Amino acid sequence: MGSLMSLMLAFLQASVTCVVVAAVLLAVLALVRRHWPGVASQRLVWLLAMAAAAGAFMLALAPAGAGWRLLPSIEIARPAPVAAGAFPELALDDVLGGNDGDDDGLARESTPAPRWLLALSGGWLLCYGAGLGFGVARLVRARRALRGLLACATPLDARALAGHAGFDGAPDRMPAVLESGAPVSPMLAGLLRPVLLLPRHLRGFDPAQQQLMVAHELAHWQRRDHWWLHASLLLQTVFWFNPALKALAGGLSHAQELGCDRHVLARRPVAARRDYAAALVAQLKVQLTVRPGGAIGLAAPFAGAGSGAAAAVRERLGQLRLPDLGGSTRLAAAGKTALGACCVVVIGAATLLQPAFAWRTPTPPVAGAAAPDGAAHAALHASRGEAVLPVWQAPLARVKINSAYGPRPVQPTSQASPFHHGVDLDARRGTALLAPADGIVAESTDLYQGQAKFGKVIVIDHGGGLRSMYAHLDQRAVRAGAFVTAGQAIGKTGNTGKTTGPHLHFEVERDGQRIDPQRLIAALRAP
Amino acid sequence: MTPSVTELSLLKCLWKQQPLSAREIHGAVEQELGWSSSSTRKTLERMLEKGMVEQHTAHGVQVYTAALDKVETLAAFAHDFGKRVMEMDAPLPVNMFTGSKLVDQQELAELEQLLQDWPAGKV
Q1: In the predicted model, what is the mean pLDDT of chain A?
Q2: Which CATH number goes with the domain that contains B100?
Q3: Which of A182, A190, A323 sits opposite B81 (nearest CB)?
Q4: What is the pLDDT of residue A482?
Q5: Domains and their CATH numbers in chain A
Q6: Is A31 exposed, middle or buried (0-12, 13-18, 19+ CB in 10 A)?
Q7: pLDDT tens track for A219-270
Q8: Under an 8 A CB cutoff, do B103 and A313 touch?
Q9: Could you report the per-residue pLDDT of B57-97, keeping only the tens digit for each?
Q10: DSSP code of B66?
Q11: Interface contact A369, partner B, CB < 8 A
Q12: Per the structure, how many domains does chain B have?
């Protein structure tokens, strides 16, 4: 449950980061564009900015990123995991309640994440899933319509192409060409095997214009624009919630058109430019007939998009009128490097300057601690006259107490001490032994305190003067000096040493004094 | 009535050569659609109900012919799909000459004016 919550929080945080990074980059690009209009036609710049936004999302989501952050963590206190599955009667609230009683000081120390934040992140995850589903469905619908359009189109073979005015002087290597009766724009469709779809009405245009339009689409193909476009589509779908990223994608698509315009006209006479501009406008005019009644019926939903489209075409016409087609404002390699560095800086800043949400498992207080807050602790508890103990999980997945800590009602063997300094848990030979808390293996031996009566023994040092000992094991899976984490399997229980049957004997020591393990492990307190 | 893309595939197959049995149709579209012959039969049944194809018996075999005219149907469908593609709100996986958004009458008039004002002679 804790990992789901931390995932939800990380996801919310990554989403916000992604939006902020994309917005910052968009603003930077808008600023650059005002002084350096040529940036509009650099597709690499726009794709790089989109990739940076996506990268910032991934970095924020990566758990390793938390270590690099500069801002203080927002910490969320939680009890150490208890084998709740095995003890359905132990509701989480009980554990939390017990924790409050014992570990007031620890709870006070961390800043818990507010409930509303958890609710918000959970809600956001659901919302994201729904939005993604919607986006994918929309993409599927668009693809289906496109497939329908392609299915209705007639493939043009070599002979048909030879008779098409638009392919005069076209290169030998070309994608497949289809012709459609629909008044659509010429387009390059598909990813792996792209096809060039031309409307039949194109044949009605001036032959020079036809050639320019075909050359434009072939330029997309030669420049591998369809790869860039699909990458952009993928990012737009995954980050559907990010309006700035959508704007960057629009910038990318526009850059591709500007780039192809320049590519086509760079090697043609200046007079061709007006023809080209006229072809662009004529094509737009034909497209208007697609919509019955022109713009009248659909004014509302298309008003916003339409004005943007007109602005884009106006900018393309503007570029055509520049003597150098905007070529002299092209970014030099140095400019691209600078923009790349800018993206890296923004990602870096986004990663470093965000608070890390960290689940904080209460750790054992350091006795007589060096840390100042530890000292405050000690003082706090000294005033209460009782030291704080951490919360541990049970060393076995299923807990059944054979013999509790304390005076023994019955002597199991004649040599056994009348006071039981540990807990005996029922365990068949081979039951997995789990570390109850993080620590370092202090001993892993067959001769504990030089004696064989304990059988195979593991001792873990948990810090803060706390040690735990496990006896009569069948197998020891860790060596002295190994670091173990809570819940890690460290061996198997057994029947070694002096016993009357297979079981786990375990003890907890604080500052050399054995204490009742029940005080740390809630599961042992259960009836 | 708009046929699905798969229905169109079956129709195009019949326009090339007809009449054809369900098995022959399946043989022709199997590669393109990548589905089982029961899917082809099911689609044919649906198309029969919609009146897109007709069924006869020839030499004891059920055969199908297209009930729709090729040129008319393709033109109508192309227009319909074209309209959907051009009006699609979703981002499309295509590079379009004019960009993937439409302009309205007024904007078009402005652009035409821009053309009229194109600097004569050299640019």
Answers
A1: 78
A2: 1.10.10.10
A3: A182
A4: 86
A5: 138-301 (no CATH), 401-525 (2.70.70.10)
A6: exposed
A7: 999 999 999 999 999 999 999 999 999 999 989 988 888 888 888 888 888 8
A8: yes
A9: 888 888 999 888 888 888 888 888 888 887 777 777 788 88
A10: E
A11: no
A12: 1
Q: Which amino acid is at A243?
A: P
Residues 78-137 of A with CB under 8 A from B: none
Query: Which helix H or strand E contains B37, and what residues bound it?
Result: helix B37-50
| pLDDT tens string A270-280 | 888 888 899 88
Q: How far is residue A139's CA from residue A107's CA, in Å, rounded to a whole number?
A: 48
Q: Is A146 helix (H, G, I), strand (E, B) or coil?
A: helix
Residue-wise pLDDT tens digits, A190-229 = 888 899 999 988 998 889 899 999 999 999 999 999 999 9
Contact A352, A380 (CB under 8 A): no
What is the span of the domain harbouring residue B52? 1-123
Instruction: Provide the whole-model pTM.
Output: 0.62
| Rounded distance between C-alpha atoms, residue A197 and residue A20, angstroms | 38
Q: How confident is the model at residue A493 (pLDDT cuts 50, 70, 90)?
A: very high
The two structure tokens encoding residue A445: 């031996």
Of A182, A302, A313, the CB nearest to B104: A302
Shortest alpha-carbon distance between residue A205 and chain B (Å): 15
Which percentage of chain A shows pLDDT scores above 70?
A: 77
DSSP letters, A446-486, are SSBTTBSTT-EEEEEEEETTEEEEEEEEEEE---TT-EE-T
| Residues in CB range of A10: below 8 A, 6 or more apart | A60, A61, A63, A357
Residue of B5, B12, B111 with shortest CB distance to A148: B5
